[in-house]
Write a structure and sequence with these properties.
By secondary structure, the protein is an alpha/beta fold. Helices cover 21% and strands 26% of the residues. The chain has a three-stranded mixed β-sheet with strand order 2-1-15, with helices on both faces. Strands 3-4-5 form a three-stranded mixed β-sheet, sandwiched between helices. Strands 6-7-8 form a three-stranded mixed β-sheet, covered by helices on one side.
Length: 255
Amino acid sequence: MTRIAITRAVSRALQRCELTHRPRRPVDLALACSQHATYEQTLRDAGCEVRQLPEQPDHPDSVFVEDTAVVLDEVAVITRPGAQSRRGEVESMAVALEGLREIVRIDPPGTLDGGDVLQLDRTLYVGASARSSAEGIAQLGRLLAPFGYRVVAVPLQGCLHLKSAVTQVAPGGLLLNPGWVDARCFPGWEPIAIDAAEPHAANALRVGGAVIYPASCPRTADALRKLGIDVRSVDMSEMEKAEGAVTCCSVIVPT
Ligand code: GLY
């Protein structure tokens, strides 16, 4: 299988990003761009064709493209981000996905951030976060039912998005922070505990057989490697200051 990874150049306004659970700290923009370039190369090394969208100088969080679209094999859902400051990010993602997928949309007043959507087989678990409203989650369910997908809302606490708290790292295996989401929400899936000293360790990007993973979580990375998982560490320190992580910086489109 081939894959396209849609990314976006880091906004020069990244320092003015939305922050929900992290304190504001100075972002080194040059370092952010360099780390982003390494992240894109890691995607290429994992077999992706990277398509980078242009910078959006007026949208500080626009590098976090994951929040603008949910791409499935049959259809792409263009979201309506929960943060007003992010609504102007979606149109260029819709253009990028034209020709790759049928496009459907979340409409007002619903809101949905792609970072809240975890696809596990034919079920989409959606974080009932401050960004994704009950109306947005219900719309997602209605849009995807004709394609045979089930949408399940999941309570979470202490983090921005569902994928801050849980991601898939192996066949049947979920890397999970039990303080932020309850493993019992995902019946039939084996929870893999993060290292307790690394609360942000549950966000991993599985691409084919590889797992792109933050260098800031070395203890959990070691534990994953001991399980035989092909962990590819990337330094995302500047994105982490902006409350972003490895899944946030790309939209993966299987082709
Ligand atoms: N700074 C990432 C977000 O709030 O969407």
